[in-house]
Amino acid sequence: PLILGIETSCDETGVGLVRGCELLGDEVASSVDQHARFGGVVPEVASRAHLEAMTPTVRRALDAAGVKPADIDAIAVTAGPGLAGALLVGVSAAKAYAMALGKPLYGVNHLVGHVAVDQLEHGPLPKPTVALLVSGGHTSLLLVRDLATDVRSLGDTVDDAAGEAYDKVARLLGLPYPGGPHVDRAARDGDPAAIRFPRGKWGDGTYDFSFSGLKTAVARWVEDAGRTGRALSVPDIAAAFQESVVDVLTRKAVDACTAHGVGHLVISGGVAANSRLRALAAERCAAAGIELRVPRPRLCTDNGAMIAALGAEVVAAGLPPSALDLATDTSLPVEQPLAG
Ligand code: ATP
Ligand code: MG
Ligand code: FE
Q1: pTM, rounded to two decimals
Q2: Assuming Cys at both sites, which of 61, 143, 204, 298 could form a disulfide with 15, CB separation 3.0 to 4.6 Å?
Q3: Is ipTM beyond 0.90?
Q4: Given ligand 1 and candidates 169, 271, 300, which is best to mutate, with the most ligand atoms within 8 Å of its CB?
Q5: 78 bridge partner residues
């Protein structure tokens, strides 16, 4: 079946077309530039931008894939988690398409979509797989036995998400928003051992994470430098901060695989685009005999193909479609791939 996927949980209007693990179309319109001067996503601005981008983005995706609306077999849409107004635009559009085309509608989970998208690049996920989900709003270790029906949370961040920590530290260092890619780039010229920043919840025997202490440590370091007139190396701070983040992420991910006897790890979400995370994960997985899968950076950040990919799984599992009064859920739990 051919699945149309619609994503509007944050500031990207994403439309994807997928058949099984085959990616046919993937168009993204971002309002990120409109939020840059506020240093974070402004929900009302995002909703408005989704409204304006929705129809043209759907049309571009269909054109690029050479698909006619009548060819679509089902429509998948992000029901949550995300921004209330932004989600509402996508869900409303998806309902309209479902009704107009007479096709079933599936409200799916954005976070599980981040994991499912890897199938479009590397084929079906082995069962079970451990997934490290690292995004702007979430940081979780998951045991995925089945993308549509069996996703278990092993651990979560107790405070900031990994992407949030990157964005906050970028701001402290005077780098543009969103900061993750800028910290990544700055760190390439820095010495990760120049400063030893704390590793939150390191070796505590859980699969939970904490990044707010690290962020505070970076803030204090920057303040101290200002006060004492000590030279501040942005590349060194970026590299040392990044090392602290990816050290804990990769260690706990490998530990989760070992403890659960799972030989496969997938890393996904916006922070999975990070070059150092990809490199250290590859090194540690190789050493532990774990097969690592990380989607290409374009598929790591928000897009519609990830929602179509999860929609394809849900359809293949034979789960019932959502009702046309499907509600959005701003805090849909990751253990619920299908909403409602
Ligand atoms: P969620 O998926 O939790 O709802 P989100 O959809 O806003 O949040 P994503 O789009 O998955 O998050 O990821 C965005 C985050 O990824 C931002 O915090 C951004 O800074 C971060 N990011 C993107 N590229 C990189 C990179 N190369 N290095 C580090 N972080 C990055
Ligand atoms: Mg975004
Ligand atoms: Fe996301």
Answers
A1: 0.96
A2: 61
A3: yes
A4: 271
A5: 108
